[in-house]
Amino acid sequence: MKKVLSGIQPSGQLTLGNYIGAMQNFVKLQHTEECFFMVVDLHAITVAQDPAALREQTEAVAALFIAAGIDPNKANVYVQSHVRAHAELGWLMTTIANMGELERMTQFKDKSAGKDSVGAGLFVYPTLMAADILIYNADLVPVGDDQKQHLELTRDLAHRFNTRFGQYFTIPEPYIPKVGARVMSLDDASKKMSKSNPNVGSFIALLDPPDVIRKKISRATTDSGREVKYDPANKPEVSNLIGIYAHCANMTIAEVEERYDGQGYGPFKKDLAEHVVAVLEPLQERYNEIRSSGEIHHILKQGAERASIVAERTLIEVKERMGFLLPRE
Ligand code: AMP
Ligand code: TRP
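^ thats the input. predicted complex w/ tryptophan below
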């Protein structure tokens, strides 16, 4: 069995992009591998969060993991800050990283662009992410395309540690879906669909009611012309919608094109909305059940306890190798 680890930030409503780009792969991998799925609250606070909203969102994202089909008896589901070793190894990894390589991270550049004051946490964000992964010696990290660069940095840091302190960390591989690694914004196909976009019409939230989903899809920008043809270079908007359709209807891109051959955008968008609703409506029902039962707290406790055992063991080994004097009886 391979070790699989991933995390999602509780920094706003999760979107269809998170679901297609990341969570669907979590659900798939849990059947064959040893999985660790976290709500990464320590990462969320690298930009200012309202405390009450952060607490609510952390619980909401955890419940969405379960609602999306993650089975807490198969995978470890927990909150990053509940496993303290993450923050500690994060510091150790920060001392292994260089300013130059952190300055090159495109997520840092995007999030800090045009700001007078940029938080130091945002800058060292990728070293904490490296710690998240390395602390379980994860083999595979299912993420969307935008996280590829952070994973490359993680691999470099693991390699650097191994060179200085002896072979220890597994060098992790990204696991990126072929279709859906980049679900784009509904109002502008040059940007990824993101929960932090101030235009709520640009994303479909996993908890959007069916009528809101229908409205958002009917208003989604489409390229000029009327052909339902997958051509990301020339028809980026329609191609993005075709990708979403293929995912939600469990069809290939070619099958979608064929079904709407000669029909124009109208019927295509109408059916697309129904496919998205068919995927999200049952997820929302399960979500409501989980939230009202309160069972999520038990799931998170159990997940953190199991994860802590592995994480603490790694931390001791790493500190030993780095030359820390460990406490003795
Ligand atoms: P975040 O919401 O930034 O915490 O991202 C959580 C996971 O969802 C990461 O693996 C991202 O790569 C993935 N993800 C976020 N937005 C998208 C998107 N628009 N398309 C594909 N994957 C995404
Ligand atoms: N940086 C990731 C994101 O924004 C979230 C994350 C934190 C993560 N730690 C991780 C993803 C470890 C994979 C593995 O999407």
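The mean pLDDT is 96.
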